[in-house]
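re: that chain from earlier
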Amino acid sequence: MLKRALWCLGWLLLACASAWAAPKRVFVVESYHSEYPWDQDYRRALQERLSPRCELAFYTLDSKRLPGDQVRQRAEEALQKIRAFNPDLVIVGDDAALQKVGRVWALQGKPVIYLGINNNPRNYFDTTPPNISGVLERPLILRNIFELGRSIKGMRRALTMFDSDLTSRIIRDETFVGRDSIRLGDIDVDISLTDSFAAWQQKVLDAPKQYQAIWIGLYFTLRDKNGKVVDGAEVLRWTEAHSKLPLFAFWDFSVGKGKTAGGLVLTGYEQGSEAGKMANAYLFGGKPLSGLFPVTPSEGEYLFSRSELARYGITLPEKVRARSRWLE
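^ sequence. v structure.
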């Protein structure tokens, strides 16, 4: 009886020691800024997955709004803050943070998990170190256009619109094979990249001369005539108000009343959730990062706005409707 009591006490003490152990320290470097919906979503997912067992610190590079030299300065400051924080793990969100911070930290032999990476992560290393893995982001551009294009009467040509940020350039290189146009079944698909809000506006106004629908990509680095970054919400509001063509999207933050009609979209929350699962496996499950292979989370989700579909008189195929999530 005494032996059994001592055994139970030992297990209790062990459990208490585990509960009282200091939390793991995780430093998150965001490529963009705190107000960006993508960042908000994956940050929320990381907090849900890792708190309270982890102490989280965040730092933003603000790469969509700041000029390149200032982004490089912020990357250096991020590395200084990481060293001071002395984390058990660094998580980097999106390509700029991996390229400018995660790469440096990983090459020092430190553990790094990435998320939201559009490029091939190997392109950031001569030889990929074993102490890095993460979550890839693959926008479903071609499948999105191919499936939804059939709901547009007389669909022959589609326009995809992006800013000229790093992610946009990678998408052109990866999805469009570095070209400005591709053939998708019987639909010609063009990609437009610009850093000018005025050029973006003119493209939207001229689009009905050539196209039957527009797919909105990224629009957060467009600048006005004074060189100031235009708020992304304002870009989307203007585009919805002035487009004569149906608008679709590749990311969930662009869908809703006064935005786009929807599409087969990706979410930042899913990226953060997958990165959080990987972090838990490494920090608490004893799994080395070399044994955690990069993942591409899902095939996206159909998300649509009832009001925007009605505005353009679009009826979706039944198999798409049955699998969709709906907004106003």
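The first strand starts at residue 24 and ends at 30.
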